[in-house]
Amino acid sequence: MDPKAFFKLSYGLYVITSQKGDKINGQTANALIQVTSEPPALAIGINNGNLTNEFIKDSNVFAVSILSQETPLNFIGQFGFKSGRDTNKFDQVNYKTGSTGAPLILDNTLSVLEAKVTQKMDVGTHTLFVGEVVGTEVIREGEPMTYAYYHQVKRGTTPKSAPTYSGTKEEKKETALPSYQCTICGYTYEEDKGDPDSGIAPGTPFEDIPDSWTCPVCGAAKDQFKKV
Description:
Elements: E1 14-20, E2 23-29, E3 32-37, E4 40-47, H1 51-59, E5 61-67, H2 73-80, E6 95-97, E7 103-105, E8 109-122, E9 126-138, H3 147-152, E10 179-182, E11 188-190, E12 225-227
Antiparallel strand pairs: 1-2, 1-5, 3-4, 4-9, 5-8, 6-7, 8-9, 10-11, 10-12
């Protein structure tokens, strides 16, 4: 079986949030679909080991923030490569509390949807939550981030807890300048492309990047990169 066949499936990229008592948490996710229109309902797959899964099971609510195409990698990494058990993911993030009690992210968000869980299905490594949509709001206009755009243009990576993680390495593209890969999350810094979101211009040699620079996806230090 060729895992690359799954790469042709179309996905979006979202932040899924929930609450448990007076605590909130969120994570990036791509395995979300609308399953019915009357009443409107969504289905989302969340890894059983993730804190967000625990929160949704406890509160039976979740919210979806649909990310814009311009969302920087470090914002996606904040919710995708860090655990709410170790860090406050909402630090310096603009959000408001929705009618369900789940946080609604306002930064880099086109629209938000709130849902109350009606069904849960254990599918092995993940739980499939089906929720009836009880609230929606358009935050601003723009193009939504697709999973393909995230990988091909933003050069983002996939955490191991994601349902679409394959464990296979992407083929290295031949370029005139060398590349350096983060040993923590797999993000690749390509010298010919730089890291514009962090102010690193295309063509900047890796050695010339300030030592204070960190991986735009997971926040790993520069010394955690290796030449590939």
